[in-house]
Write a structure and sequence with these properties.
The protein is an alpha/beta fold. The chain is built from nine helices and eight strands.
């Protein structure tokens, strides 16, 4: 009756799982939890395939919410400072960096650039060019102002795209979120292996054509799900 009509919608938007359940017990728990959702969307291809195997075929792959907003909107939301760090490459990996530091420094030297490392982990490192953590304003500034971004983080990749940076991605594990995004934007070549960086620079004109369609599709999922 009225309670069902007025019941709030339960919608999953851009859900992500680093490790997929393997045991039948875990799969059963996931089925039970998913049964309470009215609409389901996920962020990566392997999770989508997993849900299909579980019997949930009516779901969508959508953009991470950070990618729904263009750089101009991020500039309005966050007061991004000018850090005055000169010309540099940013290396960002949260807990680990899946690049060879030797190769990264050789690349920086060839380009005549400094190296800034955002590690995401606390350390006793006194290097002024190594940040263990920064706030949202500095985080966006470090990516926005970098000449190149070397990312072993999904959101490092996402904001590199948002700010139209030249970037490379490399992951030792849990790469599917970034791979799904890069494949959908025609940027698969940015996922490098063996630290080979001599690949053509990104032309963002076709990339942003694809991104705009993905944004529209993602917003349509939200609109339709919340009707």
């Amino acid at each position: 009756g009225a309670e069902l009509i007025n019941a709030p919608k339960k919608v999953s938007y851009a859900a992500s799982m680093g490790l997929l359940p393997e045991s039948e017990s875990e799969k059963g728990t996931l089925r039970e939890l998913l049964s309470h959702l009215d609409s389901i969307s996920v962020r990566e291809q392997d999770l989508s395939l997993f849900l299909t195997e579980l019997g949930y075929r009516d779901h969508k792959i959508v953009l991470d919410p950070t990618l729904l907003l263009p750089s101009e909107k991020w500039e309005q939301i966050v007061e991004i400072p000018n850090l005055g760090l000169g010309r540099y490459i940013l290396v960002y990996g949260i807990t680990t960096v899946s690049f060879s530091w030797t190769k990264v420094r050789e690349f920086a030297a060839r380009k005549g650039l400094g190296v800034i490392h955002l590690s995401g982990t606390a350390s006793k490192n006194d290097d002024p060019h190594c940040y263990s953590t920064v706030g949202p304003d500095y985080f966006l500034a470090l990516i926005r102002d970098a000449e190149y971004v070397f990312s072993s983080s999904f959101h490092g990749v996402a904001f590199s795209v948002i700010f139209k940076k030249q970037f490379f991605a490399s992951f030792s594990n849990n790469s599917n979120r970034a791979k799904t995004l890069l494949d959908s934007l025609g940027l698969s070549s940015r996922m490098v292996s063996n630290d080979v960086f001599d690949i053509p620079e990104v032309d963002y004109t076709p990339v942003y054509g694809k991104l705009e369609k993905l944004r529209n599709d993602s917003m349509s999922f939200l609109t339709d799900s919340l009707k």
